[in-house]
Specification:
This protein has helices at about 85-90, 110-120, 135-145, 160-170, 195-210, 235, 340-350, 375-390, 415-425, 450-460; strands at about 5-10, 20, 35-45, 100-105, 125-130, 150-155, 175-180, 215-220, 240-245, 250-260, 270-275, 275-280, 300-305, 310-320, 330-335, 360-365, 395-400, 400-405, 410, 430-435, 445-450. The protein folds into 3 domains: about 5-45; about 75-280, P-loop containing nucleotide triphosphate hydrolases (Rossmann fold, 3-Layer(aba) Sandwich), CATH 3.40.50.300; about 285-460, Ribosomal Protein S5, domain 2 (2-Layer Sandwich), CATH 3.30.230.10. A 9-stranded mixed sheet has the order 6-5-7-8-4-9-10-11-12, sandwiched between helices. With about 450 residues, the protein is α/β, with parallel strands linked by helices. Helix 7 (about 340-350) crosses helix 8 and helix 8 packs across helix 10 (about 450-460). The protein is built from 10 helices and 21 strands. Strand 10 (about 250-260) and strand 11 form a beta hairpin.
């Protein structure tokens, strides 16, 4: 056999990409100066043709059984007590499952998990390991939000071996680690929070969860673009990846499932962050409307689908000063995809004759919600046309549809459910694409439009 040797490789500290030689720029994430030397103990590779594959049986966890005899109850989800969180998880937390909750600093991740931990502690011991705050700081937050329970155990640790000691002592049914970037393992090279440490610690915690059927929730950080920080393998190691986001200046918070082995990935949970913690919002649609007493030009209401939940939201636009060449125009968006706003503006200029050239354009949503679904295109187009003509849209009207580059309006999914939600909130008229399945019996007047020009004529002249 070949003698053990020390191999030298180079690894990116941002994404974990490896290279046999040093390079100035990462070949995966394109970050400059992030590739550093990483020494690993291994064995020298044998020359081709000199080695043989050794076929040797190993120990198993148990005998293979017919699939019909497998006990499915051991993998059944257990509700956390927070209905909005359970909605996203697919019913609750699964024994042995590993959940990664990622979000920006200060968005409320610790508050969410502290409340969930206190509720879960009603049916068994819960261990909350904090590596970013002291135990006293977490206790103060728990007092403020009412998350005190005799079965909720708290430990402030950053060493993985110490974490295992607490798990052995408490024997919890739920383990919460806040955050995985602060935990370090002595047998792994690299600084705490580095790619190597995070990857190995997460792999070890996943193995611990599967071995003990211990439900584990890990808190993770996010990068500037909102993706989960650390190597991409981090998301493959865990069973569920949740994104917790919201405008730090507002009170609305949303939980989305980016990956879920135990449930759907098209659900969202809505919360309101207040002084005394997070409150679930089973009916959040009203938060996204301005509720003006008088109609205002440049606004239009639409119905978007967040997962399987329809949300009624308002799009607001404003046209600024007319800019003379060569001074550039200014476009500002909040809660909307700037590329889709640019596309809709281009369609209005070319296909409808709406004169918004050389003007500053401002487009935003209400309540901090972010609308990315293509079905909001028509509402944005109608709002911009309304702002240009300085004519308000009827306050009881909604517009739903995707706008194409040829100016056509394309059908969207779940039109009947969208209209039902709009009708429930008091809207009586709707503009939808031609051929949409609107259902029967809804007391709402539906007008079909094949292109943007027709839709604008219905809205402004309606």
């Amino acid at each position: 056999m070949a003698r053990p040797t020390t191999a030298t490789s180079y690894e990116c500290s941002e994404c974990g990409w490896r290279s046999a030689k040093w390079v100035g720029r990462c070949g995966e994430c394109q970050a400059w100066g992030s590739v550093t030397e990483a020494r690993t103990n291994g064995r020298a590779a044998a020359a081709p043709g000199l080695g043989r594959v050794q076929l040797q049986a190993g120990a198993t966890r148990g005998p293979a059984v017919p699939i019909g005899q497998v006990d499915a109850e051991t993998a059944r989800a257990r509700p956390t007590g927070m209905d909005e969180l359970d909605r996203v998880l697919g019913g609750g937390l699964v024994p042995g499952g590993v959940v990664l909750l990622a979000g920006e600093p200060g968005v409320g991740k610790s508050t969410l998990l502290l409340e969930a931990g206190a509720l879960a502690a009603r049916s068994g011991p819960v261990l909350y390991v904090t590596g970013e705050e002291s135990a006293a700081q977490v206790r103060q937050r728990a007092d403020r939000i009412g998350a005190i329970s005799d079965n909720l155990y708290l430990a402030s640790e950053t060493d993985f071996a110490a974490l295992l000691t607490h798990v052995e002592a408490v024997d919890p049914r739920l383990l919460i680690v806040d955050s995985v970037q602060t935990i370090s393992a002595a047998w792994v090279d690299g600084v705490p929070g580095g790619v190597t440490q995070v990857r190995e610690v997460t792999a070890a915690l996943t193995g611990l969860a599967k071995q003990r059927s211990l439900t584990t929730v890990l808190v993770g950080h996010v990068t500037k673009d909102g993706s989960v920080a650390g190597p991409r393998t981090l998301e493959h190691l865990v069973d569920v990846v949740l994104s917790f986001d919201g405008d730090s200046r507002g009170q609305l918070r949303m939980v989305r499932a980016l990956k879920n082995r135990f449930g759907p990935t098209d659900e969202i949970g809505c919360f309101e962050l207040g002084e005394y913690g997070l409150i679930g919002l089973p009916d959040p649609s009203g938060l996204f409307l301005s509720r003006q007493h008088e109609p205002v030009p440049g606004t239009c209401v639409t119905v978007t689908m967040e997962g399987r939940r329809p949300l009624v939201a308002e799009v607001q636009t404003l046209l600024g000063r007319i800019v003379a060449p060569p001074e550039p125009t200014r476009w500002v968006t909040s809660g909307l995809d700037s590329s889709r706003v640019g596309m809709v503006v281009a369609v209005l200029r070319s296909r409808t004759g709406v004169d918004i050239a050389r003007q500053d354009i401002y487009a935003a949503t209400i309540g901090g919600v972010r609308l990315t679904e293509p079905s909001i295109d028509l509402a944005l187009a109608v709002a911009l046309a309304s702002a240009t003509a300085d004519i308000s849209i009827p306050p009881d009207m909604v517009a739903i549809g995707e706008v194409g580059l040829a100016g056509e309006i394309r059908k969207v999914t779940a039109t009947a459910r969208r209209l039902s939600e709009a009708q429930r909130l008091g809207f009586r008229r709707a503009i939808v694409p031609v051929g949409s399945e609107v259902g029967d019996g809804l007391p709402i007047e539906v007008q079909e439009a094949s292109d943007v020009r027709t839709a604008i004529a219905i809205a402004i002249g309606g």
